[in-house]
Amino acid sequence: MGIAASNKTVSATQIACGESFQVTLALTAEPDILSNPVDIVMILDRSGSMAGSPLANLKNGANRFIDIIYQGSGGSDGQIGNGSRIGIVSFSTTATQDAALTASVDALHTAVNGLTAGGYTNQSDGFAKALELFDGSDGKGKIMVLFTDGRNTGGGNPYDMAERAKAEGIVIYCVGLQGRDGLDVPALDAWSSDPDSAYVLITPDDAELEQVFADLAANIARPGATGIVIREQVSPCFRILSIQAPDKGSAGLLDANSLQWRIDRLGVSGSEAAALRFTVQHVGDCSGPVPVNEAVSYSDDDGNTVSFPSPVVEVECGTEAEGDACPQPVELTLPACEDSVDFDAGTFALEGLGRMVQLSVTLRGVCPNRRVALAVALSEPDGNGGECQRGLRFFTLPAHTGASCRDVTLRCVRFVLPEPADAGCSCGGLCRARSLRVRVMANYLDSGWHCCD
C-alpha cells in the first residue's frame, strides 16, 4: 500500500527565547493491496457540529478515498479488485452501519452521500459498530479510519473499544478536524495505533479534508516503500542539539541545521510505522510565530510522493524599545595622498561636560496590550553620607501584542556626568573611579478599567 501517512509534530507550540523542544518525524507504510487484500471500515462523524461545509467536504473526501482504493486495487466494473472491501459506519448520538464491507463502489457512494448532521458525538459506538463488520477469520489485513471533529459527548469510553480493536490486529488511523466543539488530540493519540505521531492526522480547515483522505487512500493503494531517504532542514532560527535512534533505519546530522534519515524497507510485508525524534534549540533573534521547517525532502525506490506538515512554534523573546536614538554622524572623506585635511563638522548643541553612561533596563513579565511608564534615576554618593543627583529620565514603553506576558527591554538610556562634581559633592576628577546608583520605577499606564456607561 506504500506510505500511508506522514507526519511532523513538535512537543511544544510556545517556547521562551533560547529554549529547546522535540521534533518527531513519522511514517506509516502498508503492503501492496493487489497481493495483500484488506478490509477498511471508515468511521465518520456526523454530529451536529459537522453541519454545513464540514460535512460536505467530509463526503467529498470519503468518496475520493473510495475511488482511489478502487483504482489502486485493480478494480473494474464498479467493483474494488483483488478481494479488498470497504465498509461505512457513521456516528452522532449513536452509530449506524451505513454499508457493510463491500466491493461495490456505488453502494459505498450512496452510503456516504446519505449522511446528515445532528446530535452528539459518540465515538465509542462508532468503534463498536465497526468491529461488528470485521470477520476475524479471513486472514485479511484490517484497517479502521476514524474521522471526528469533536470530543466524546455521549456513550461509553472510546478508548476501551479502540484497545479491543487493536488487540484483534486492526490498524487504526485517526483523522481530526479542529471543529466548533474542540478536538481532543490526546484522545486521538490514545485511540490510534502506535506511534500516534504516525497514525494521527490533524487539519484545522475542513476545506483540506478531501486532500487528507485522498493522500491517505493514494498511499494505502501503493506497495510498501524501499530505499527511503528523508532530509530534514530546520529554520536558521533553530539548531539541532541531538538525535535519538529512530525506530527503523539510521539517522545522522549533516550540519547544525539538517539531518538525514535512511530506511531500507517499510511496510513491505505488513503494516509498519517508523518515527525519528530529535531535539531543537532556538537561536538568534527570531521571535513570534516561527516555522520549524526550512525544507524537508523525501525519496524512495518505489516512487512514493510524501509531504510533511510544517509546524509553527511561537517564540517569546523580550520586546525591545529604544530609549535614545544614536546621534547622527557627519560624513568625512579623507582624500588620497593627503597628510592633513580641514573639515567643518557643523554646529552642535552642548550636551554636557564629562563622562557618558549608557544603560539598558529589562522589565520582567510585561502583560500584552499595556503601555508602561518608566523612570530611571542616576545618583552618586559624595563620600560624606550624602548623595548627588546626576539625572532623571522618563519613558513610555509601547505595548507589545504577544500571546502572553513577556520581558521588555529599554535600550540606550544615556546620561552625561559632569566633571568636576557640582558644589558640595566632591566626587573626584575625570581620571578617578566613580560609584553610581541607578533606581528604576515602572508602572502600567493601561489598566483596562473604564467607567460604567
Explain what this protein looks like in three dimensions.
With 453 residues, this protein is of the alpha/beta class. Among the domains are: 33-221, Rossmann fold (3-Layer(aba) Sandwich), CATH 3.40.50; 319-326 and 352-444, Immunoglobulin-like (Sandwich). 16% of the residues lie in helices and 40% in strands. The strands form 6 sheets. A 6-stranded mixed sheet has the order 6-5-4-7-8-9, sandwiched between helices. It has a 4-stranded antiparallel sheet with strand order 1-3-14-11. It has a 4-stranded antiparallel sheet with strand order 12-13-10-16, with no helix packed on it. Strand 4, helix 1 (53-72) and strand 5 (85-91) form a beta-alpha-beta unit. Helix 1 (53-72) runs parallel beside helix 7 and helix 3 (123-133) runs parallel beside helix 4.
Layout of helices and strands:
Elements (H helix, E strand, L loop, with lengths): L1 E9 L3 E3 L3 E11 L7 E8 L7 H20 L12 E7 L3 E8 L2 H9 L9 H11 L7 E8 L9 H10 L3 E7 L7 H7 L4 H4 E4 L5 H12 L4 E10 L3 E6 L6 E6 L2 E9 L5 E11 L5 E4 L1 E7 L12 E5 L2 E4 L31 E13 L5 E10 L5 E11 L8 E13 L18 E8 L9
Parallel strand pairs: 2-17, 4-5, 4-7, 7-8, 8-9, 18-22
Antiparallel strand pairs: 1-3, 3-14, 5-6, 10-13, 10-16, 11-14, 12-13, 15-17, 19-22, 20-21, 20-23
Helix pairs in contact: 1-2, 1-7, 3-4
